[in-house]
Write a structure and sequence with these properties.
With 114 residues, the chain is mostly beta strands. Helix content is 0%, strand content 56%. The strands form two sheets. Strands 2, 4, 5, 6, 9, 10 and 11 form a seven-stranded mixed sheet that branches. Strands 1-3-8-7 form a four-stranded antiparallel sheet, with no helix packed on it. A hairpin with a 4-residue loop joins β7 and β8. It starts with a strand and ends with a strand. 31% of the residues are buried.
């Protein structure tokens, strides 16, 4: 199982970014996927969960109405559309799946500058 997030960068407050998580080594469309955010000096926060066919998505209050999670099961890619970014969104973002055991991918760093 491999997960690789990408799409992070340095942006201004109010900007948008789209993160991607490329998945391989498992039947992607059969598994719920999670996005986590780890702010500097803090523990990871589960910010989004999406079911296997993409019909059910849950968000943490911190990102609700600003972030949108989606997935392309043909391409085995998970997305996180991030709008109206705030300084507190700064941190490492990574995707995670439980295939027997939890597996997290290499994250991508987002820095939101004011």
């Amino acid at each position: 199982v491999q997960l690789q997030a990408s799409g992070g960068g340095l942006v201004q407050v109010g900007s948008s970014l789209r993160l991607s998580c490329a998945a391989s080594g498992f039947a992607f469309g059969r598994f719920d996927m999670n996005w986590f955010h780890q702010a500097p000096g803090k523990g990871p926060e589960l910010i989004s969960q999406i079911n296997g066919n993409g019909t059910i998505v849950h968000y943490a209050d911190s990102v609700k109405a600003r972030f949108t999670t989606s997935r392309d099961n043909d391409k085995n890619i998970l997305y996180l559309q991030m709008n109206n970014l705030k300084p507190q969104d700064t941190g490492l973002y990574y995707c995670q799946v439980t295939v027997g055991l939890p597996v997290r991918g290499r994250g991508t760093l987002v820095t939101v500058s004011s």
